[in-house]
Amino acid sequence: MKLKLSGPFILKTGEKIKRPHLFYKWEGDKDLPVIVVLGGISSDSLVSGEKGWWKDFVGPNGSIDTKAFSILSFDFLGGNGKSSGPRNSKEKMSIHTEDQAKALRELIKFLGIKVHTFVGSSYGGMVGLAFASLYPDLVEKLLVISASHYPNTRSIALRSLQRQMVSLGRSKKLGLAQARSLAMIGYRSVEELESRFGRKKSEKGEHFLVEDYLKAKGQEFSERFHPDAFLNLSESIDLHFVEPKTIRIPSTFIGVDSDQLVFSKDIKRLSQKIKAPSTFYEIKSLFGHDAFLKEVEVLGNIIKKELAR
Predict the structure, then answer these.
(1) Catalytic residue, candidates 42, 73, 83, 122
(2) Where are the beta strands (DSSP E) in 165-265?
(3) How many percent of the chain have pLDDT more than 90?
(4) Which end of the chain has the smaller Cβ count within 10 Å, N or C?
(5) What distance in Å separates the CA atoms of residue 259 and residue 152, rounded to the nearest whole number?
(6) Is the pLDDT of residue 129 over 80?
(7) Domain, as residue range, for 290
(8) Burial zone of 300 (CB within 10 Å; 0-12 exposed, 13-18 middle, 19+ buried)
(9) Is 289 one of the catalytic residues?
(10) pTM of the model
(11) How far does Cα 162 stand from its chain's mean position?
(12) Domain-terminating residue out of 171, 206, 235
């Protein structure tokens, strides 16, 4: 579904989206409590089902049980989906997580609902923090996975290099493929890459297997993602900041011990600083930042437990 946002939609920077719209999906029985689910910058509004980006977690009898909850999600502003962004607008956008939260507020007001729990992973967790900070009266609980109230310097440095690859390369598409290849090194743990590839080479011995893996991931991403959408949302991550003391609703925070992009210690520190009841979990995983997609059993059990509180 597409919602026309009140226009012009004024971003935090003062820039305006002249013809703003938000593409969203509200799945399940509309009489059930609403769970907002948002993921990383490459996710979209399709959460469950055969092609859903979080299908292993969301569904009938799943960690987020669609027999007990309805699911609301949307395509990010400035992103790769059907909301206002590079694929359907030539307007320049410098997006903050607060802008995504503002758009969600309009959607919730339009639907006439209150959110039972906001479940956000990675960039979606940042948006969840911004939303809880700005609109605590519209959400009862917050569950944040692999996201903190600000990006660490190492991650900013890596993303700035990725954006340079996209902007300064011979073509944005080629640059995006290279940027994604670099990003994959940060998404997975050192231990996972070592155990999976080591120093193994291809059959002909021309390349290391890890080179082939990174090249394939970069190529696949560049075929489906708009370079300017990547630039918008990558920058949005680095611009993100939420003052912990402004979070005043019960919250659950989950960090991953091997996450090199969002340090678990930063998430724990955030959980200790908010002005509301808070629970922190640290899970052990070889998958680093990608654990929110891979650790179905351990992460799923925590989500199910926290939603049942």
Answers:
(1) 122
(2) 251-256
(3) 91
(4) C
(5) 12
(6) yes
(7) 2-151+242-307
(8) middle
(9) yes
(10) 0.96
(11) 17
(12) 235
